[in-house]
Design brief:
With 175 residues, this protein is mainly beta. It contains 1 helix and 10 strands. It has a single domain, classed as Immunoglobulin-like. Strands 1-2-8-4-5 form a 5-stranded antiparallel β-sheet, with no helix packed on it. It has a 5-stranded antiparallel β-sheet with strand order 6-7-3-9-10, with no helix packed on it.
Amino acid sequence: MKRILSTLLVSSCLLTGVPIASLAQGMPGFTLFGGPEQKNQLNFRLDSGKSGTWDRYRLRIPANKLNLAVAQLSIFYPNYYKGSFDTEKIEIRVGGGSSEKPESIPIDEIVWDKENNFVEIYPAEPIPAGNKIEVVFSNVRNPRFGGMYHFNANIRTPGDVPLLRYIGTWLLTIE
């Protein structure tokens, strides 16, 4: 009887641990040390999250972080990130509440500066303040080696001093 009970306990722990491990891949988790403050961490979703594979990144910025309109979105990533982006497959989705789907907006230009480790996205029209934004990077080639990568979001507002304003950080983990 004890043997059956212990086998049942071990197998149930293994079965419930698998979905939890796969869910942890898509959303920011608990950071024990280092990294940005909790209030500066942004949500994201990775379709795969596996090293050396093709992936899609959904990088989200909540509406409460956008008090000003957005004329430019800059995403800085660390120099040790060795993945690649397909600039033809980057889009910005705006809005989307609990019952509506976010709307993809036209993009005027996308600049990927590989040497300085950033991607600049210029929407055709400024994105009004108070909207949720989701930046979707499709056809991303993940780095060959896993790790934790800080992707920093910065915006430039229309008609303002041309300085970038820090919005937050996505803590991407590639296995």
